[in-house]
Amino acid sequence: MAERLQKIMAQAGVASRRASEKLIEAGRVKVNGVVVTTLGTKVEPHDHIEVDGSPLEGSQKHVYYLLNKPRGVVTTASDDKNRATVLDVLSDVTERVYPVGRLDYDTTGALLLTNDGELANQLMHPRYRIDKVYVAKVKGIPTNDELKTLRQGVVIDGQKTAEARAEILRTDTRKNTATLELTIHEGRNHQVKNMLKKVGHPVLKLHRERYGMLEVHDLVSGEYRALTHNEVQQLKRGKQVRKSSGRL
Fold first, then answer.
1. Where in the numbering of this chain does the RNA-binding S4 domain appear (predicted)?
2. Model pTM score
């Protein structure tokens, strides 16, 4: 049965469906020797598909890893500035995995990597509304009104963020800093940093404590582990948890 090209690519572990669409639009995909740039192109099981000149392998075993991303590592497969990537950290993983979403270069914490394009696409879709729990150390001590603004949403680049959960975990009046927990379910670029900057409290340090029900309390920086079968099933069902250690 014919399937959309980007779906087949995602199922084969090339990239998420959205990332596969970008590969197609960039002219990096061939079907039966012909470059295809039209999204929605359907292919048959017998069609020969190439990505960057390499044949697309059949559906492979799906693997899932949770990484406690260290600072100074980029969340991409490669980097034109020759910086270390998350794939360098997972150097002994033989499968071709890719990160689900992104964390900034200087942001640490929970990052999921997989070759399951269908699940990755589901998790990154706005309708999925998966919780992302961050612990942020900021300049200044937010007031109740500023916390209320964060919870109700702030306008960034002309668009208001969705409602969030925000609470102060601890303060340091001597250094005039505070540590907050902020839970969002959107995935805009630099969203947490921009939200906190908008209310007058620039981020000094940022750590993603949890992604859905996946937490990194037991992983040291740079350490990773395979997800259990139960965790994968919970992710697919969209299970969430709402508890934090507040660790930075």
1. 3-61
2. 0.76
